[in-house]
Design a protein that fits this description.
The complex is a heterodimer of chains A (190) and B (442). With 190 residues, chain A is α+β, with helices and mostly antiparallel strands. Chain A has six helices and nine strands; from the N terminus they run βαββαββαββαββαα. Chain A folds into two domains: 95 residues, Alpha-Beta Plaits (2-Layer Sandwich); 67 residues, Alpha-Beta Plaits (2-Layer Sandwich). In chain A, strands 5, 6, 7, 8 and 9 form a five-stranded antiparallel beta sheet that branches. Chain B has three domains: 50 residues, no CATH class; 158 residues, Rossmann fold (3-Layer(aba) Sandwich), CATH 3.40.50.1220; 171 residues, Rossmann fold. Helix content of chain B is 37%, strand content 13%. Chain B has 17 helices and twelve strands. Chain B has a six-stranded parallel beta sheet with strand order 3-2-1-4-5-6, with helices on both faces. In chain B, helix 11 links the parallel strand 7 and strand 8. In chain B, helix 6 runs antiparallel to helix 9. In chain B, 46% of the residues are buried. Classes of the chains: A alpha+beta (190), B alpha/beta (442). Chains A and B meet through helix 2, strand 4 and helix 6 of A and helix 1 of B.
């Protein structure tokens, strides 16, 4: 089963490398991976899709949580979510095909963002299915160049807040005798 | 430059808290040359680092209930027991509920190995009775260990009859190899005393009796209980234990056959007194680590047990022994002229095609002389005790080159991919008479 995971991580050089290195070393199969800013300054948000059974996905999550730079990891698959992907496609055109392509793009609620005499650039935003489907159509006219962002996702409505409260990794916390150790580090003595 | 102080502070924090370990700090050359103000007061802000997860008390109660109901319980103790410093609580728990203990390599000494309920190391080179206990128990309590392949053997045949309870600090290790029935995630320093509280006093007479039968069966074939006229490594290790046990030494081993023999034949009664590289399996580890142990504990007797292969990987560190004012590290080289563990595998699984494993060594006594370190060569069992006594009595470092019988194998052995109770047992030694004075294994 495919799982959509979201990881929040410190926005510092080398962090993306470390996280992707971890996924590679553990031989996790990543379908797509996308990184960008989150709502919080200094924290990036990575969305990625992994294909695997529950145990494997649990391992991905736990291994990511172990990374010091990763502040939080969630599996959105169990929750209602909005997932989208953006694709830019340069498709070959001529006078005969141009209007047909424009019609198709309109049906898919895509946009023509650039036009040349022999090609145009189509932008489509939607679920992977929809993007796949339009690309399959455009393929008949000859796709010259294509780029896809991979899936980005957010949880619907009030779920997000609940998730965040339930997250055990949101804030590092110490317990028992170790609270004093944590305190010691805060005050500077070693 | 401004980051340096608090990055180092973070590094020490990560290295020591939670599951401790190595932290790499990459300090660029321009920072190395820069000057700045040393400010160590900034708090450690690591939102992604959670060294001590909150303990789920429900899981703990569930674990205690399973243990209290068990007829054939078994504890498997790993390195976490020593790291959390709960060896004493473990012993209390073991005695209260009469639960036998199998350890991992790094869990050696979690409970005194001379204790009646200690079964020693399990797994690939564990005793057959320890592995039979794992396969036969009905509740397996894993404490601070990660079900490494050396301890589990074939995963789908591991402890099939048992409910598995996993006490572990690192959430990522839970369910990685063996999926537990109950997982208690948290620091053993907190969870084990809580478990101890919740454990009822119990006796498991039938189970203990069964274990004793299995143990007697193994003891019969143990080479150490037969008198042999040749210098065999188990004998050397056992003699080393006899000669040093009262001094409570720290023993540091390298990687290979001697490492397994050390664990089998040296009776460790205290946690943290066997320093070995465990899962990292780094040959050449022993001498540098022994230097570290001796520096940290200047008044403790430190013995490095090494093979002739691993020793040659870092023997240049002998210079450090001299440099640090004759650090009194004693070195026992179990010299069999082979990369013995690999040779053993080549013998068992590759039709005795010894490729790259017969190795050449320098004359270690002359080498020691070149470093101005006293040394001895030992060829016969009758010389062992005197040599070790001389090493212990000599101030400063000392090297003993034990020229042991070459093709001795580590038994018992569970071949990779086999279940732990499908191991090769010890062959009966052919020579029954010879040099005397050996204390039985148990």
């Amino acid at each position: 089963m495919k799982h959509t995971l979201v990881a929040w991580m410190r926005d510092k050089p080398g962090v993306l490398n470390r996280v992707s290195g971890l996924l590679r070393r553990r031989n996790f199969n990543i379908d797509s991976l996308q990184v960008g800013h989150s709502e919080e300054p200094g924290i990036s948000r990575m969305t990625f899709v992994v294909d695997g059974d529950e145990r494997m996905v649990d391992q991905v999550i736990q291994q990511l949580r172990k990374s010091v730079d990763v502040t939080r990891v969630e599996d959105l698959s169990d929750h209602p979510m909005v997932a989208r992907e953006l694709a830019l496609v340069r498709v070959a055109t001529n006078a005969d095909t141009r209007s047909e392509i424009v019609q198709m793009v309109n049906i898919y609620r895509g946009e023509i963002v650039d036009v040349a005499l022999d090609s145009m650039v189509v932008q489509i935003v939607g679920s992977e299915d929809r993007v796949d489907s339009l690309i399959a159509l455009l393929d008949h006219f000859g796709i010259q160049e294509m780029v896809r962002t991979g899936r980005v996702a957010v949880v619907r409505g009030a779920m997000e807040k609940r998730l965040r409260r339930a997250s055990t990794v949101w804030r590092a916390q110490a317990n028992g005798k170790d609270a004093s150790a944590a305190e010691r580090f805060k005050t500077g003595g070693v | 430059m401004d980051d340096l102080a608090h990055v180092l502070k973070e590094a020490f924090y990560i290295a020591r808290e939670g599951r401790p370990g190595v932290v790499l700090v990459d300090i660029c050359k321009d920072v190395q040359n820069a000057t700045g103000l040393f400010d160590y007061t900034q708090p450690v802000e690591l939102p992604g680092f959670e060294p001590y997860p909150t303990i789920d008390m429900d899981a703990l109660r569930e674990a205690a209930a399973l243990i209290n109901k068990a007829e054939r319980p078994l504890i498997m103790a790993g390195h976490g027991v020593a790291i959390a410093g709960v060896a004493r609580e473990l012993l209390q728990m073991v005695e209260r509920a009469e639960i036998p203990v199998v350890t991992t390599l790094l869990g050696t000494g979690s409970i005194p190995e001379s204790h009646a309920l200690s079964l020693g190391m399990g797994g690939m080179h564990g005793e057959a009775y320890a592995n039979r206990a794992v396969q036969g128990c009905d509740v397996l309590v894993a404490l601070g260990m990660r079900f490494d392949d050396r301890i589990t053997g074939r995963l789908d045949k591991f402890a099939r009859q048992a409910k598995i309870v996993h006490f572990e600090l690192d959430r990522a290790e839970v369910g990685k190899n063996i999926v537990p029935d109950v997982a208690v995630i948290g620091n053993l320093a907190v969870t084990l005393p809580a478990l101890l509280e919740a454990t009822e006093p119990r006796r498991h007479q039938l189970w203990i009796q069964q274990l004793q039968e299995w143990r007697d069966d193994s003891t019969q074939t143990d080479i150490i209980n037969y008198e042999v006229d040749e210098l065999i490594p188990p004998f050397v290790i056992r003699q080393l234990w006899h000669a040093t046990k009262d001094a409570k030494p720290i023993v540091v081993t390298d990687v290979g056959q001697h490492q397994m023999w050390e664990c089998q034949y040296f009776t460790h009664d205290d946690a943290n007194m066997l320093i070995t590289s465990g899962g990292a399996g780094t040959m050449g580890f022993a001498l540098p680590a022994a230097i570290g142990a001796q520096m940290a504990h200047p008044n403790t007797l430190v013995w490095a047990v090494v093979g002739d292969g691993g020793f040659q990987m870092t023997l240049q560190e002998l210079a450090v022994l001299k440099q640090e004012h004759d650090l009194p590290v004693k070195i026992a080289i179990i010299n069999n002229g082979f990369l013995g563990m690999v040779r053993q595998w080549q013998q068992f699984f590759y039709d005795k095609r010894y490729t790259g494993t017969p190795i050449w060594s320098p004359d270690f006594v002359k080498l020691a002389a070149a470093y101005s370190i006293p040394a001895l060569e030992v060829h016969h069992p009758s010389e062992v005790a005197a040599a070790i006594a001389q090493a212990n009595a000599t101030p400063g470092p000392f090297i003993i080159d034990f020229r042991v019988l070459e093709e001795v194998n580590v038994y018992p052995m569970v071949a990779p991919g086999m279940a732990v109770d499908e191991g090769m047992r010890r062959p009966k030694p052919a020579v029954l008479q010879g040099y005397s004075g050996i204390e039985p294994s148990f």
